[in-house]
C-alpha cells in the first residue's frame, strides 16, 4: 500500500517513501514532504557529490556538507554544484 505526499521538491502529489530513510527531525520532514521520485533523484546527485568531492562519509564535515546540499535540493529547489553536470532543463 503506497502513500501519497505533497512533494515539496516536485510541487505535486506523488508516491511517498515507504519508511523514514534519514534519521531525526530532518528524516521525518523528508518522509512527510518528499516523494520517492525526488528522493531517488537526490540519491543520484548525492553519489555524484560524494565522488566529485571525494567525500569520506566517516567525517562529520562531509556528512554536514551533504546534509546541507540535501536540504537545499529537496526543500529549496537548489541544484547542487556538480562539475561537469548540467541538470536537464525543463
From TrEMBL:
Domain of life (superkingdom): Bacteria
Keywords of the record: Iron
TM regions (residue ranges): none
UniProt-listed SUPFAM superfamilies: YggX-like
Pfam (any one): Iron_traffic
InterPro entries: Fe_traffick_prot_YggX, Fe_traffick_prot_YggX_sf
HAMAP family, per the entry: Fe_traffic_YggX
Family listed: Belongs to the Fe(2+)-trafficking protein family.
Described purpose of this protein according to its UniProt entry: Could be a mediator in iron transactions between iron acquisition and iron-requiring processes, such as synthesis and/or repair of Fe-S clusters in biosynthetic enzymes.
Protein name in the entry: Probable Fe(2+)-trafficking protein
Amino acid at each position: 500500500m503506497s502513500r501519497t505526499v505533497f512533494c515539496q521538491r516536485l510541487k505535486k502529489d506523488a508516491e511517498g517513501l515507504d519508511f523514514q530513510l534519514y534519521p531525526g527531525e530532518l528524516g521525518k520532514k523528508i518522509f512527510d514532504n518528499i516523494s520517492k521520485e525526488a528522493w531517488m533523484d537526490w540519491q543520484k546527485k548525492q553519489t555524484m557529490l560524494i565522488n566529485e568531492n571525494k567525500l569520506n562519509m566517516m567525517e562529520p564535515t562531509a556528512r554536514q556538507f551533504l546534509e546541507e546540499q540535501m536540504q537545499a535540493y529537496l526543500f529549496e529547489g537548489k541544484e547542487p554544484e556538480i562539475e561537469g553536470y548540467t541538470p536537464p532543463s525543463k
